[in-house]
Amino acid sequence: MSTGPDPALLDRQLRNYLGAYPERVQAQVRGLLLEDRLAEHLARKYPGKHAIQGDAALYDYVQGIKQAQLHSTPPVHKVLWQNKMDVIQNVLGLHTSISRVQGGRLKAKAEIRIASLFKTLAPEFLEMVVVHELAHLREREHNKAFYQLCEHLLPDYHQIEFDLRLLLLQRAVAGA
Q1: pLDDT for 27-57, tens place per residue?
Q2: Which of 24, 127, 133, 172 has CA 20 to 30 A from 109's CA?
Q3: Would you place residue 107 in the very low, low, confident or very high pLDDT band (cuts 50, 70, 90)?
Q4: Contacts of residue 6, Cβ cutoff 8 Å, sequence gap at least 6
Q5: How high is the pLDDT of residue 110?
Q6: What pTM value is reported for the model?
Q7: d(CA 100, CA 109)
């Protein structure tokens, strides 16, 4: 009787979460999953929890990062936790700009929504997603300039993003 994940399902999940990474990296992660060591590794690396639970606290947190790092970008008018985001499709946060005509002028309001999943995760993961969404205020597309900005705002951005992918992968495999 096998207690580990189904190999075909595991390979499919690895492609979903780590498909852009080299096979060597995917093989290391596969080994950690098969040995049931990935969750322990991530818990050791990211032991903390944050206290940001309400929309007002999240708004203040985002505004603090924006004021410290991106004060010249357009204002963010609304920030809130979003309960119904499709994490499987890599939607961890959402930035929108709502345009309205007021008189003869077009007014745009920026909104950021963060998946409620981040309420229970380490503060590093929340910071990474917030930085990602704030970077979209300056760079709309996921291009080289966008990722350079993310890394400027959060020097460990790429490592934290990778570790978040590992966490989501581990949860997907454990929930299967």
Answers
A1: 999 999 999 999 999 999 999 999 999 999 9
A2: 127
A3: low
A4: 176
A5: 85
A6: 0.85
A7: 8
